[in-house]
């Protein structure tokens, strides 16, 4: 009994010391912050390069299994991936800059038209019960605040991209050497892992890749197709700023359930400043895109690769949105998948020992 008490006392002491260490660490933020920023600036290109390598490697292996030599497979996929991205930037950046400039110049007129539209809705719903009327006003206020914050974040992100342009230019070279030396990197990871953990670590990584890899690759492909279709549809019907709206719809589509709603809001706001007919066209486009994703692209490309109940996904999204906003919504599901695999492995290890 006494030994049990000593063990619990030791565990509580270790926990308190750990919490105290974390508290002191954050109190010393001004000391280690410059080193952290420098480390982050250097580490992020490697992280992005590793992620792109992870996405491209299975495609290279499939091409290699068809009889194409591995160096040639790497070169083909590498050139296709970065060539298409480079061409997209070459053609798209000038258009995007022009649309952003036009949006900035016409913002007062758009704001006035939007305010007029909101006032008309306010007058039409004025006779509704007070609770519903107030909720509609609150919804518009929250939407406006979210849109303002999103625009501010996009602008700051673009500025950050230009600040780190040199580091971003390194990413294609990192990806090429990571793809070329993929087997050597795996061997290095094998030797760096303690011998007693190697088999469990390999199985853990395989389970994560099986649970998450196909989902991420499929979801990114679906987002690209949906964004492209949104851009083409909005451009065809002469909706203003089709490239900006197409990018927003494509990027936010990575968020399950909530993504289509978030991506549709800016498009509907722009449409509301144009005409009622444009609003109807945008609504039809959004619904059509969701039908294509839900009934064709989703089942065909992504499928049910997560094997998670929708309630768990919804709870993960709500938690991620509360903690990290839009970014939290985007990474919530992958984090939950990794945590689920980790918990299953810990339970299995505990049963074995």
From TrEMBL:
* UniProt superkingdom: Bacteria
- Matching InterPro entries: AI-2E-like (IPR002549)
List locations, semicolon-separated: Membrane
Q: Which residues cross the membrane?
A: 9-26, 32-56, 68-90, 161-179, 220-237, 243-272, 279-303, 323-349
Q: What is its main location?
A: membrane
What Pfam families does this protein map onto?
AI-2E_transport
Q: How is this protein positioned relative to the membrane?
A: Multi-pass membrane protein
Would I find Transmembrane helix among this entry's keywords? yes
What are the record keywords, sorted? Answer: Membrane, Transmembrane, Transmembrane helix
What protein does this entry describe?
Answer: AI-2E family transporter
């Amino acid at each position: 009994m006494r030994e049990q008490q000593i063990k619990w006392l030791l565990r509580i002491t270790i926990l308190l010391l750990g919490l105290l260490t974390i508290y002191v660490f954050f109190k010393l933020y001004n000391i280690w912050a410059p080193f952290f920023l420098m480390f982050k600036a250097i580490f992020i290109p490697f992280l992005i390069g590793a992620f792109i390598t992870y996405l491209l490697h299975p495609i290279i292996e499939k091409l290699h299994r068809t009889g194409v030599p591995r160096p040639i497979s790497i070169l083909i996929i590498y050139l296709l991936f970065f060539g298409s991205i480079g061409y997209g930037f070459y053609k798209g950046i000038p258009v995007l800059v022009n649309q952003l400039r036009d949006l900035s110049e016409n913002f007062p007129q758009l704001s006035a038209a939007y305010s007029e539209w909101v006032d008309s809705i306010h007058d039409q719903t004025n006779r509704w019960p007070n609770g519903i009327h107030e909720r509609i006003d609150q919804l518009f206020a929250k939407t406006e605040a979210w849109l303002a914050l999103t625009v501010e974040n996009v602008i700051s992100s673009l500025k950050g991209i230009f600040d780190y342009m040199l580091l971003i230019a390194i990413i294609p070279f990192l990806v090429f050497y990571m793809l070329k030396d993929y087997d050597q990197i795996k061997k290095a990871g094998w030797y760096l892992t303690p011998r007693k953990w190697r088999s469990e670590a390999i199985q853990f990584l395989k389970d994560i890749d099986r649970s998450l890899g196909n989902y991420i690759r499929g979801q990114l492909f679906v987002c690209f197709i949906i964004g492209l279709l949104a851009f083409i549809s909005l451009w065809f019907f002469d909706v203003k700023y089709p490239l900006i709206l197409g990018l927003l719809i494509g990027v936010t589509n990575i968020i399950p359930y909530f993504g289509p709603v978030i991506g549709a809001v800016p498009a509907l706001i722009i449409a509301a400043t144009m005409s009622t007919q444009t609003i109807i066209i945008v609504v039809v486009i959004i619904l059509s895109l969701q039908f294509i994703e839900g009934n064709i692209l989703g089942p065909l490309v992504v499928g049910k690769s997560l094997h998670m109940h929708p309630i768990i996904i919804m709870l993960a999204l709500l938690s991620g949105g509360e903690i990290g906003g839009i970014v939290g919504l985007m990474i919530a599901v992958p984090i939950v998948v990794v945590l689920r695999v980790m918990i299953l492995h810990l339970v299995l290890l505990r049963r074995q020992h």
